[in-house]
Write a structure and sequence with these properties.
The protein is mostly helical. Helix content is about 80%, strand content about 0%. The chain is built from 2 helices and no strands. Helix 1 runs antiparallel to helix 2. The longest helix has about 30 residues. The radius of gyration is 18 Å and the shape is rod-shaped.
Length: about 70
């Protein structure tokens, strides 16, 4: 499977968004900024989940193969 962006990039973006939103929340005193970081983390987790499920599903179908009976 040739994806445009590797999985580790989504993990890196999620960590960076979480840390940066925490920094901004402490620096500005606006705790609502953290929710933006949580949203980015949730989006990255959803993207990775879909990618892993799609990879699992395609490898499962390939392993199962056609029924030659």
């Amino acid at each position: 499977m040739n994806e445009r962006y590797p999985n580790w990039m989504f993990a890196g973006v999620a960590i960076a968004a979480y840390e940066f939103s925490g920094f901004l929340a402490r620096w500005t005193g606006a705790s609502g900024i953290r929710w933006v970081g949580y949203g980015v983390v949730a989006a990255c987790a959803a993207i990775l989940g879909v990618r892993y499920l799609r990879t699992f599903w395609s490898s499962w179908k390939r392993r199962r193969g056609p029924n030659d009976r």
